[in-house]
Amino acid sequence: MRRREFIALVGWLPLGGGSTLWRRLALFWRPRFDEDAVRTVTAVVDLMFPGDGLPGASELGIHTRIVAMADLHALMADGVVWLDRHAANQGASGFLGLDEAGRTAALAAAFASEDDAARQFALTLRFYGGLNYYSEPIIKAAFPYTGPPQPGGVRRLPRFSQVTNEADWDAVVVGAGAGGGAAAYGLCRRGMSVLLLDAGPQFNPAVDFPLTNPDWDSRDFPEKAGSTGSVTFAPGQELRGDEPLLRSWSKGLGQVVAGSARWMERYYHVRGIGGSTLHFTGESHRLHPDAMKMKSRFDVAADWPIDYAELEPYYASAEELIGVAGPTAQGARWRSRAFPLPPHPLSFAARTLGRGAAALGLDWQANSRAALSLPRYGRLNCNYCGACNLGCPRGDKGSADVTFVAAALATGRCVVRPESQVVRIEAGAEDRVTAVLVGHSGGGIERIPSPLLVLACGAVETPRLLLASDGLANESGEVGLNFMDTLSITVGALHPDPQHGRRGLPDDAICWDFNAPDAIPGVVGGCRLFNASAEAELKGLAAFALRAIPGWGREHARSVRRLWGHALRVGAIGERLPNRYSSVALDPNKRDAFGIPLARISAWLDESDVSRLRFMAAKSRDLLAASGADDVFESYSSWDWFGATHVFGTCRMGADPSASVVNANCRSHRWRNLWITDASVFPSSGGGEAPSLTIHALSLRAAERMGRDG
Description:
Blueprint: H1 3-10, H2 20-28, H3 35-48, H4 62-67, H5 73-89, H6 100-112, H7 116-133, H8 137-140, E1 171-174, H9 178-188, E2 194-197, H10 205-208, E3 231-233, E4 249-250, E5 254-255, E6 263-267, H11 294-298, H12 308-322, H13 348-359, E7 365-366, H14 401-410, E8 414-417, E9 421-427, E10 433-439, E11 445-449, E12 453-455, H15 458-468, E13 487-494, E14 509-511, E15 527-531, H16 541-547, H17 553-563, E16 567-574, E17 583-591, E18 597-602, H18 607-626, E19 631-637, E20 641-644, E21 674-676, H19 692-705
Parallel strand pairs: 1-2, 1-12, 2-8, 3-18, 6-20, 12-21
Antiparallel strand pairs: 4-5, 4-19, 7-14, 9-10, 10-11, 13-16, 13-19, 14-15, 15-16, 17-18
Helix pairs in contact: 1-5, 3-7, 5-6, 5-7, 6-7, 7-16, 9-14, 9-19, 12-19, 13-18
């Protein structure tokens, strides 16, 4: 029996999908994604994206891409059955037998249906249809400013040398990101020879970051073989109470998290030469001095065993090498010398938000950025393409590969080896580690002696490696504990006037007024607000059309055309206090290709974190409204959505060996030649500061003491 004949036979059945007869009939007949279904999907996609003066979806072949998605065939077949049943109840032979008004009504009913199959069918076609339609060059060309400017030249990096024979290294550094790159450079400038290992690949900016391609805005940061490590998650925290300001949603896509538990989506990171700095926005922040004394001053978290004054010279050194551009002053963050480069000019959106901040009595200033405002060290200055999170093809963003790793290589005393995953650390006599074992893709294991070993794998992979090495350096039991993730919210709203917020440098303006640990009334731990209008998450026409503008069809097309460029977004990042329910452990069941247990992340927000998020949400909306943008179209927060980029605290530094993993110099309390230089050593997260500059400074300071401390 053909599908349409079947629908004609049972078209009188209730549309809710709950009929016992319907379920019994379904046992004998399953909908197929046949030619009839293809024609229906084509009609639906054309109805959703008719063009309205521009080419419609079918003219551009959008339907062929949708129907080619084999993993959606079952969902589309079920949706087509629903539409045909709906049409049959209206007296038509099927959906294709309806006129345009009837089809429009049927599709609207699918969007509003309580039948999950119908609603998911409609939402899925809207998402994939819109993503493809609004990414078409001919459609994008009809909207002003949809792509980044031409790079104007790509700086090619030197090829990394390869190990060809046995060598005796003074030090082995594991992880070539913010901490490992800085540590390697610090050791090399002392005259030591360094082998710098990373589990991930080498990226070629000219090839791997193609921001001038027409489809730039539909790309994420590129993934190469081995560039993303696998992790698992403990079940998400149950969400308590109704938090309308904290739920993640958009007008176009609806509520992100449908269930009652926090969605443990992803740990965003990059393995490779440069690490996660390849992907980062490039904010360059010093910690607030008071945030380093959270226990003694506020009775939460733990104190840093060093203070701001001890770290300040290393902050300045790191800023100099990177070429940080920043304002003359940043409040409590006193400086021994000015930023190396002048601040970047504020974008139009940042200036609009600045007027709103002034109306609220808030200080609004240029953010300090690891992006060159002037040419420096043979690197080009920023061209304000706004796509920092997708990788910088020019080399103006201060990622570790073009700064610290390049500087280490220039000494002639560093060898870099990508695609070299350390799977185990060997411990020896006299409280010294002796070697690392490196796994190779062919299955072989290489043993590399390590007179001095530096771990800089990040707050997830560093504790994993220690725990997988028979609990090395875990004499205190603190390895993997005190995990802190990103506490954040981003709110978007439409402004009456065009803002073209994606033009300019992402996160170019910031408010530090609530950054001190005691700046939020009734809550310990601060936060900061910033201009998120140019962030890559809303980087192109397709994202705007799908998220900011609800609906579909001709009215949707007209609204997109009328409101494109009107979005403003404010972000807030805050202190994330450690607790005993948040940790990184070894997964008891899942292992990688070398048989090493994967890291298992548990993340729990306590009431103080939620209170801080409420404040951040309210202030973000206040700033948007004061800036003239009160039509909120989306809000995303870490209350219900774990998608962390900044993670900290799993190998805490401290003076007490019973309550920490490393000492004030980042050396293991027990193991005399083992050092850790990444964000895992942070005793507290700070009030929203980006961590990379503090990682650099800690690493440079530790490198001065390596081989001398014990």
